[in-house]
Design brief:
FAD/NAD(P)-binding domain, 24 strands, 6-stranded mixed beta sheet, about 25% strand, 5-stranded parallel beta sheet, Nuclear Transport Factor 2, Chain: A, about 600 residues, FAD/NAD-bd_sf, alpha/beta, 3 domains
Length: about 600
C-alpha cells in the first residue's frame, strides 16, 4: 500500500471537500471532518467572525450559508507539512463575491481545524500590485487637477458638502489602521480624535512607557516598521510613526475634535453624529459608526471613603504624567499589572518612595522568556528568515480555535515557569501574589479573557522582589485620610500621591457615553470569550464579544485590541463595511446573543 505524502493527502481532501460543497452534499462534507473538529470563519461564509465547534455546529452553518456563499476553486498553496501526527497546509478559495485564504489541519486524514478568511472582494480589489494607480495623468487636459488639489478638495468637502460613509471615533492606532484599510477600499471615512495630533494618545502617557510587544508583532497595515526599528519602541517614537502614517496614507483625520453624541435612525439607516471640531459644531451623517477607542473602555477609578479629604494628588494611570514632579514624595500605586509596574519603576528611578498595593494575584512573565518560548516561532527575526511574515503569522495564530488555545499555550508557560523558577521564588518570598491564569494557560488567555491581570516584566519585578519598590499585597484601601491611606488590615501608609492603576471598563462604556445606555445594553459587554474564569463570565462564546463583527445594534462596530489584533482584524472589518457600502448581500450567520450588559 502506497503511503500518501502530506501534499497528496491534502490535495485529495480539498478535492473531496470542493466536490461535496459544490453538490451541496452536507452529509458527505461531514465525513471529511474528525469528531473533534473546529471551523473558524472570518467573514467568508458567515459575514461574521465565527468559530463552529463540532460537526453539529458546522452542519448548521453550512445549511444556512452554502447557497449564498457558493464556494469554489479550492487550491493548495505550496506544499503541505506533517508534524506530531498533524498535517498542515495553506490553501486559497473563492466565494460568489470574494477571494479567500485558509489553513487546514488534518488528523488521520480528516479535518481537525479549518480556517477560512475573506481576503478581498472580487469586484473591489485594493489598488496595489497590478491594480496600482498610475498617479501621473499623461496627455493634455485644460481641467487637470493635481494630486494636491484633489487631496485638499476632499478634505474641504468630506463632512460638509459630502457625507462620509463611515465615521471612526478614536484616532489611536486602531482607528488609524482601520481608516487606512477603508481608504484603500475607497470607503469615504472620517476619523474623530480629541487630541491635537495623531499619536498623542501615546505621547500623553507616562514618560517611561514602551511597547512590551516586539516589533515583529506590531506592524501597521501596508507600511511595516523599517528593519532598524527598535524591538520595543518608546511611546513617543510610536506617536511620531502614527502621525507620519496618518499623513502618508492620506487619511481624513479630524484632530482636536470631540464627539458630543450620536443617534441612529432605523428608518433611514443613518447615524447623526454631532462633533465639536476646534470649537465648530459639525453634524455628520454616516451610514456606519465604528468605536475605535482601544480594547479598554472608560477608566475604572475606585471610590474610597475620604478621597475628597486628601490633600495630595490622585490620578488614574491614564492621567499620570510621569515621575519628574515626585522626587522624594511618598507614592501609593493601587494595582499590580502592566501600568502599575511601569509607573512604580519610573518613580523609583526618580527617587520617589513607592509602595505598590496588590489587591489580587498577577501573572508575571519576563519579556525575554515570552519572546523565546511563546512569540519567537511566529514573531521574531528568525521567523521572518523562515518565511513567516507578520501577515502569515497572524493567520497561523488566528487558525487556532480559542477552545484549543489553552492546551497549546500551557506547555510554553510551563517551560517559562521552570526556566524562571528562581525569579518567581524571589517574588513570592517578597509577598507578591502570582498566578499563571485560572488554568495555568498564561498571558494570552488572560488577555483574551479579561484584558488585564498581567505584567510583561521589563525590570520592575526585580525592584519589587528586592524591596526597592515596597509591596503590600492582599489588602486594599479602607479609607483615605488628608495625608495618608488606611489599609484594610488597619495599617497606615503616608502618601503625597495616589495613582489608581486600576484598569478600564468594557468598551461599551463609550457607547453609553456617546450614544445611550440603552444602546450600550443592547450590544452588551465587549471583549472576553465566556470562559467562566475571573472577569470573563460564561456562557462560552468562542469569539471575542462584539469585536470587529456585527453587533445587536445595526451599523455599530467595535474595533480595538493590541497592535497585532488591530492590524489583522481591521482587514475583516473593512471588508464587511465595503460590502455594505456596495450593497453586496451580507447575511450574517450566528449574530451573537447578549449575556452580559457591561
Amino acid at each position: 500500500m502506497t503511503t500518501l505524502t502530506p501534499t497528496q493527502q491534502v490535495s485529495q481532501w480539498l478535492d473531496a471537500f470542493e466536490t461535496a460543497l459544490r453538490e451541496r452534499d452536507i452529509p458527505q462534507v461531514m465525513t471529511l471532518f474528525d469528531d473533534d473538529c473546529y471551523w473558524r470563519d472570518l467573514v467568508a461564509f458567515t459575514w461574521n467572525l465565527k468559530t463552529l465547534e463540532g460537526k453539529d455546529e458546522i452542519r448548521s452553518m453550512l445549511d444556512a450559508t452554502l447557497a449564498e456563499a457558493r464556494p469554489a476553486n479550492w487550491q493548495l498553496e505550496g506544499e503541505a507539512s506533517e508534524a506530531d501526527g498533524v498535517t498542515e497546509a495553506w490553501f486559497t478559495f473563492e466565494t460568489g463575491v470574494a477571494r479567500g485564504r485558509g489553513l487546514l489541519r488534518l488528523k488521520d486524514g480528516r479535518c481537525w481545524t479549518l480556517l477560512t478568511t475573506m481576503s478581498e472582494l472580487k469586484d473591489h480589489p485594493e489598488p496595489r500590485g497590478k491594480h496600482r494607480p498610475k498617479g501621473a495623468e499623461h496627455g493634455a487636459n485644460k481641467h487637470r487637477e493635481t494630486w494636491l488639489e484633489a487631496h485638499q478638495r476632499e478634505q474641504e468637502e468630506l463632512g460638509y458638502t459630502r457625507q462620509p460613509y463611515c465615521v471612526i471615533i478614536g484616532g489611536g492606532q486602531g482607528g488609524i489602521g482601520l481608516a487606512a484599510r477603508l481608504k484603500q477600499l475607497d470607503v469615504p471615512t472620517i476619523v474623530i480624535e480629541k487630541n491635537p495630533r495623531a499619536g498623542d494618545s501615546w505621547r500623553n502617557r507616562y514618560k517611561s512607557l514602551c511597547l512590551h510587544d516586539p516589533v515583529w508583532y506590531d506592524h501597521m497595515p501596508y507600511i511595516p516598521f523599517p528593519e532598524n526599528w527598535p524591538v520595543f519602541a518608546p511611546k513617543d517614537k510610536v506617536g511620531d510613526w502614527l502621525e507620519m502614517y496618518t499623513k502618508v496614507m492620506e487619511l481624513n483625520y479630524w484632530s482636536s475634535t470631540e464627539c458630543e453624541g450620536a443617534t441612529y435612525d432605523e428608518a433611514s439607516g443613518e447615524w447623526t453624529v454631532t462633533v465639536n471640531r476646534n470649537g465648530e459644531r459639525v453634524t455628520l451623517r454616516p451610514k456606519q459608526l465604528v468605536l475605535a477607542t482601544g480594547m479598554s473602555g472608560v477608566p475604572n477609578v475606585p471610590h474610597f471613603a475620604g478621597a475628597e479629604t486628601f490633600e495630595g494628588e490622585q490620578q488614574h494611570s491614564s492621567q499620570h504624567p510621569g515621575p519628574d514632579a515626585y522626587r522624594g514624595k511618598k507614592v501609593v500605586v493601587v494595582g499590580a499589572n502592566n501600568s502599575a509596574h511601569d509607573i512604580c519603576g519610573a518613580l523609583w528611578e526618580h527617587d520617589a518612595d513607592v509602595t505598590m498595593l496588590q489587591r489580587s494575584s498577577t501573572h508575571i512573565v519576563k519579556s525575554d522568556s515570552l519572546m523565546e518560548e511563546v512569540l519567537g516561532p511566529l514573531y521574531s527575526e528568525e521567523a521572518v528568515q523562515n518565511g513567516i511574515t507578520h501577515d502569515k503569522a497572524d493567520l497561523i495564530f488566528a487558525s487556532i480555535p480559542y477552545k484549543v488555545l489553552p492546551d497549546i499555550q500551557k506547555p510554553a508557560f510551563d517551560a517559562i515557569r521552570k526556566r524562571d523558577a528562581d525569579f518567581y521564588q524571589r517574588l513570592e518570598d517578597a509577598g507578591f501574589m502570582l498566578d499563571f491564569g485560572a488554568d495555568d494557560s498564561g498571558l494570552f488567555l488572560k488577555y483574551l479573557r479579561r484584558g488585564s491581570g498581567y505584567y510583561i516584566d521589563v525590570g520592575a519585578s526585580d525592584l519589587v522582589a528586592n524591596g526597592e519598590v515596597k509591596l503590600r499585597s492582599g489588602v486594599s484601601i479602607e479609607r483615605i485620610n488628608p495625608r495618608s491611606v488606611t489599609l484594610t488590615d488597619g495599617s497606615e501608609l503616608p502618601a503625597d500621591l495616589i495613582v489608581y492603576a486600576t484598569g478600564y471598563g468594557s468598551m461599551n462604556g463609550w457607547a453609553a457615553r456617546i450614544i445611550s445606555q440603552e444602546v450600550a445594553d443592547k450590544v452588551g459587554k465587549c471583549w472576553g470569550l465566556g470562559s467562566d474564569t475571573p472577569k470573563d463570565p460564561g456562557p462560552w462564546e468562542g469569539e471575542l464579544r462584539n469585536m470587529w463583527k456585527p453587533t445587536q445594534q445595526e451599523a455599530l462596530w467595535f474595533h480595538g485590541g493590541n497592535l497585532h489584533q488591530s492590524r489583522h482584524y481591521s482587514q475583516y472589518l473593512a471588508l464587511q463595511l465595503k460590502a455594505r457600502q456596495e450593497d453586496i448581500p451580507t447575511p450574517v450567520y450566528g449574530l451573537q446573543e447578549v449575556h452580559h450588559l457591561s
